[in-house]
Amino acid sequence: MFDLLATTLSGDALTEPAGQTETLDWQWRGEGILELSPRQPCEAAVVISAGIHGNETAPVELLNQLVSELLSGQRQLRVRLLVLLGNPPSMRINKRFVDADMNRMFGGRHARYTPNDESRRAQELEQVMALFYRSAAAADTTQRYHYDLHTAIRGSQHVRFGLLPLQARPKSEAMLAWLDAAGLDALVHHRSPGGTFTHFSSDVFQADSCTLELGKALPFGSNDHTQFTGIRRALETLVSGEPLPIREAAAPLVHYRVVQDVIRSQEDFELFVPADALNFTAFSKGFVIAQESGKTYQVEADQEVVLFPNPNVALGLRAGLMLVKM
Ligand SMILES: [Zn+2]
């Protein structure tokens, strides 16, 4: 049986783009895109993506391991499953992206870019996802999930956390229970729409979607997989329809909501969060977070914590988020 990651990195086409094992059918739908269907009816259609940022390798290795176990028959498949390795060209060079950040392009935003590898790939992933959820619906599969796996650029006060896209409908209890069981330390609730893959799947397909940040980015082969036991176990139970694992984290899950989206809209934008500040570092009321012509961002609540501070983003993009505990 082929290896998903090795085949994707090689750039070679599979000689046979579809096949079967004793219990499932698989289809190679494009570079790094694999659909797995059990032969028996099932209730859930699950998309698991990783490598949307090419240097975030640990989740890619984890997902590859899961696929190997399904293809070898070592693990049972009880959901319709679409596995996506997001950005193969950037994975090959161990870079976050080649031309531009793909996780700002979903929901059709790719059309605003001068066509490049990432904008074409974002469009392809949208189409593949649409086809997958539609064919699953035609087969009476009613629940939709999408988990997009990442690792963060900088260290974090909360090592493992999830980002929930803005949605009008309530967050699904089943998803929240699963995220808790996966051992996440924190969940961040967005307050505005964005170009992320999970915002797209939640908004367009009403999937229960979450972006998972699972530690720090390291090259292929250098990852400490003991850090990822909780999420690995949770993904196994998800695809195999097993009971949720017991949460292993010592402290309870903390919920945050976004109170400020810090956007770099002018050339003279300056960010005053120190370059080495960890994600979830707290700042007190009055602290000036960033400044540019015509706009000052400052902490308005008694305390706000920073997430993903990055002054080097393109104009019009987010240079950081400010959060408060819920
Ligand atoms: Zn990422």
From TrEMBL:
Pfam families: AstE_AspA_cat (PF24827), AstE_AspA_hybrid (PF04952). The active site is at 213. Residues 252-325 form the AstE/AspA barrel-sandwich hybrid domain. Its EC number is 3.5.1.96. Its cofactor is Zn(2+). Transforms N(2)-succinylglutamate into succinate and glutamate. NCBIfam families: arg_catab_astE (TIGR03242), PRK05324.1 (NF003706). This is Succinylglutamate desuccinylase.
